[in-house]
Amino acid sequence: MEELRPLLLSIAYRMLGSFGDAEDVVQEAYLRLHREDQVESPKAFLTTVTTRLAIDQLRSARRQRETYLGPWLPEPAVDEYVDLADRAALSDSLSTAFLVVLERLSPDQRAVFLLCDVFGYSYDEVAGIIAKTPAACRQLAVRARRRIADNRPRYDASPQERDELVRRFVAAAEDGELDALVDLLAPDATFTGDGGGKGGFPRPVHGAGNVARMLIGAFGKFGHLTVEGVHVGGQPALRIHDPADRTIAIWSFVITEGRITTIHGVVNPDKLTHLGPSGNPHDHG
Question: Given phi > 0 = left and psi -120 to 50 = alpha, else beta, which region is 127?
Fold first, then answer.
């Protein structure tokens, strides 16, 4: 039954955007399984309990997020550091931008959308998992898809082109080349930083010029920090770490029509612990 853990963690993480919360939910599902005398299908039982616990957890988490300091972003699933089931086939659904879009859904909509559209469950199967009728699940899926359609990130460049664009972005930011940086950004580009009150920016920064100036200022403060190219859900990202290899920040990029449209920066050290030792950005200038 342990072979089911990666699948369960994949579902729970996409529901909650938190590796710690996903681990807790899956562990509780296994504990409940062990307390049962006879279970016809351990996979069905564990998937059902994991999903229902995640729905409950998400409702509670949303109340807590009302008091969160600054923008809330999911913990980044850095491809090079995190192993989840079926990564190649499902990687787009692990990108930070996609998980941010999922935040627009109700917990039930999110569960139905993920189980049907990402993991391939039928409406009948999902109905049993979340204790609703197949018709109700179909309605939830239709509403979820409608809400996602206009906001889902579109990736139209090849992975190599996206990586090259981010490499040029780093070079321009490190050299303080404002005009070159503005050219790489979409006119309405946005930078959203999640510091949880421990660093970062309390509000999103909008517009290519404003974002470029903010980025050059940030790179100017990095000093002895190292900027390393990584990927989050198959999309280009940067891991910023100190000489002790403690992760200070993860920046994830959305690139559309050859320009960077969105940067999500997670600097809250509590959201980086799954990547190994993490550091407080205030310790680094």
Answer: alpha
**DSSP structure class, residue 116:** I
pTM beyond 0.85: yes
Say if strands 226-232 and 205-206 run parallel, antiparallel, or are unpaired.
Answer: unpaired
Strand, coil or helix: 274: helix
Q: Which of 247, 251, 198, 270 is nearest to 18 (CA)?
A: 270
Is residue 21 within 8 A of residue 61, CB to CB? The reply is yes
CA 174 → CA 85, 99, 129, 208, 224, distances in Å?
A: 36, 29, 50, 17, 12
**Rounded CA Rg of the chain:** 20
Confidence band of 241 (pLDDT split at 50, 70, 90): very high
Q: What contacts 59, CB < 8 A, 6 or more positions away?
A: 107
Distances (CA, A) of 123 to 111, 138, 233, 279, 284: 12, 7, 26, 44, 50
Please tell me whether residue 200 adopts helix, strand or coil conformation: coil
Strands of the sheet with 226-232, listed across from one edge: 205-206, 185-194, 259-266, 247-256, 235-241, 226-232
Tokens of 33: 């399984």
pLDDT value of position 2: 84
Residues 49-64 as b or e (16 or more Cβ within 10 Å = b): bbbbbbbebbeebeee
